[in-house]
């Protein structure tokens, strides 16, 4: 591959449990040192770097007295409470030896679904990055419930990349990149160097979860990359054990798979990213068949007269699902009226609507099919 001129400034690196811990489930200082050395090299070159690090449960379960990774939620959370401390202690010690300070940020999905907390997290991370600190982000596994989790740190890393307006997301794993078939089962599988679109064939080739020490397989990485691409962020997937993998990935000269979002016409701004990937819909509105295509293709605002039915109870400012009369979810949006008000308005005539000029959902607060490449159902993760 031919190296490109480096113009990236803010990099999010996600690293999995198996790339940080030994086969016995303890923190591998050697592996952490390798990663930190590469981050330091980027920092020395003027980059802002944020790490999304897995490994808390794997790092802590042996200190809790288990010989293998526990299965129950309370045992995993207890392991994480130990492992989080061990991980950040190791990171801090090694970064400090290079003259850099590391910070710890433990996030729950609620921090993303609440817009005020979302913006507060963004502001905090921006201060850290601007001051030269290396934030190390992980889901707060000690308190997160299974039904409220991001699912895995692949998804978290993509959402964090969007949160901080990253220039590149680097996902490090125990595989060289994305193949056109499962290389563990097909010796003729080929590594895909450049990917411009996540096709159904690519998703089918992603297969099942990978190593036992982690929670995210190739499928979760593809879902994360879809989020990054929809946000206009380029991504890279490669093997954490490859020499200089991070530095070379930033310079487009590493073995692995590069994902280019240039073909994604509709890059989402920060507000729409939050609506699409992080908000929790509180109700549903059904649009009339005559306005469905205009909403999707022309991204027009939705007015009360465009609505067929309203379901659920919600207040003004809530996020709702937008569905058509067949029940297909076609979008998400922030409403300007409560469910009670909308139910009253959709039965009014145009003359009676003269005092209600506000759109039900303004186009600037509306996310529909992303050029039909990423259906909105795929955006409503977790």
Provide an overview of this structure:
Keywords: Amino-acid biosynthesis, ATP-binding, Cytoplasm, Kinase, Nucleotide-binding, Proline biosynthesis, Transferase. It catalyses: L-glutamate + ATP = L-glutamyl 5-phosphate + ADP. The protein is α/β, with parallel strands linked by helices and 382 residues long. It folds into two domains: 10-271, Acetylglutamate kinase-like (Carbamate kinase), CATH 3.40.1160; 279-379, Roll (Archaeosine Trna-guanine Transglycosylase, Chain: A, domain 4), CATH 2.30.130.10. The protein has helices at 29-44, 56-60, 73-97, 109-113, 115-130, 153-163, 200-206, 218-230, 245-250, 270-277, 289-298, 339-345, 376-379; strands at 10-15, 48-53, 102-107, 134-139, 168-173, 194-195, 234-239, 257-259, 284-287, 307-311, 319-323, 329-335, 361-368. The strands form two sheets. The protein has an eight-stranded mixed beta sheet with strand order 3-4-2-1-5-7-8-6, sandwiched between helices. A five-stranded mixed beta sheet has the order 10-9-11-12-13, with helices on both faces. Helix 1 (29-44) crosses helix 3 (73-97) and helix 6 packs parallel to helix 8. It is globular and about 70 Å long. Residues 1-6 and 209-216 have low confidence and may be disordered.
- Encode the helix/strand succession as letters: EHEHHEHHEHEEHHEHEHEHEEEHEH
> Which word captures the global form?
globular
> Oligomeric state of the chains?
single chain
Class by SSE composition: alpha/beta
Number of strands: 13
Helix content: 25-40%
User: What do we call the CATH topology of the largest domain?
Assistant: Carbamate kinase
CATH class wording of the largest domain:
Alpha Beta
**Radius of gyration over all CA atoms, rounded:** 22 Å
Number of helices: 13
What distance separates the N and C termini?
A: 37 Å
CATH superfamily of the largest domain: Acetylglutamate kinase-like
Q: What is the CATH architecture annotation of the largest domain?
A: 3-Layer(aba) Sandwich
Low-confidence stretches: 1-6, 209-216
Number of domains: 2
The mean pLDDT is 84
Function: Catalyzes the transfer of a phosphate group to glutamate to form L-glutamate 5-phosphate.
Pathway: Amino-acid biosynthesis; L-proline biosynthesis; L-glutamate 5-semialdehyde from L-glutamate: step 1/2
Family: Belongs to the glutamate 5-kinase family.
InterPro entries: AceGlu_kinase-like_sf, Asp/Glu/Uridylate_kinase, G5K_ProB, Glu/AcGlu_kinase, Glu_5kinase, Glu_5kinase/COase_Synthase, PUA, PUA-like_sf
């Amino acid at each position: 591959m031919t190296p490109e001129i480096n113009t990236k400034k803010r990099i999010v690196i996600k690293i999995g449990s198996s790339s940080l811990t030994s086969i016995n489930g303890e923190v591998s200082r050697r592996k952490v040192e390798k990663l930190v050395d590469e981050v330091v090299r980027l920092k020395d070159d003027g980059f802002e770097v944020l790490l999304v690090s897995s490994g808390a449960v794997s790092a802590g379960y042996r200190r809790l007295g288990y010989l293998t990774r526990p299965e129950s939620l309370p045992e995993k959370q207890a392991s994480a409470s130990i492992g989080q401390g061990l991980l950040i202690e190791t990171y801090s010690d090694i970064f400090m030896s290079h003259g850099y300070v590391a910070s710890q940020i433990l996030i729950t999905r609620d921090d993303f679904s609440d817009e005020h907390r979302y913006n507060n997290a963004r502001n905090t991370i921006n201060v850290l990055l601007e001051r030269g600190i290396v934030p190390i982000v992980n889901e707060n596994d000690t308190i997160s419930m299974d039904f409220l989790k991001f699912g895995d740190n692949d998804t978290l890393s993509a959402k964090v990349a969007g949160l901080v307006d990253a220039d590149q997301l680097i996902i490090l794993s125990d595989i060289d990149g994305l193949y056109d078939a499962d290389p563990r089962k097909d010796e003729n599988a080929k590594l895909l160097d450049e990917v411009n679109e996540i096709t159904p064939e690519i998703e089918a080739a992603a297969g099942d979860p990978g190593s036992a020490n982690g929670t995210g397989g190739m499928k979760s990485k593809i879902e994360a990359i879809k989020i990054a691409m929809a946000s206009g962020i380029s991504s890279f997937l490669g093997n954490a054990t490859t020499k200089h993998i991070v530095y070379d990935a930033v310079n487009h000269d590493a073995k692995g798979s590069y994902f280019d979002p240039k073909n994604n016409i509709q890059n989402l701004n920060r507000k729409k990213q939050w609506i699409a990937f992080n908000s929790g819909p509180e109700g549903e509105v059904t649009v009339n068949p005559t306005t469905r295509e205009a909403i999707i293709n022309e991204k027009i605002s939705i007015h009360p007269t465009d609505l067929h039915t309203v379901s659920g109870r919600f207040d003004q400012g809530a996020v709702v699902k937008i569905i058509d009369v067949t029940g297909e979810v076609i979008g998400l949006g922030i409403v300007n009226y409560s469910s009670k008000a909308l139910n009253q308005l959709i039965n009014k005539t145009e003359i009676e609507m003269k005092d209600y000029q506000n759109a039900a959902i303004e186009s600037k607060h509306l996310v529909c099919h992303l050029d039909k490449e990423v259906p909105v159902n795929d955006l409503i993760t977790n």
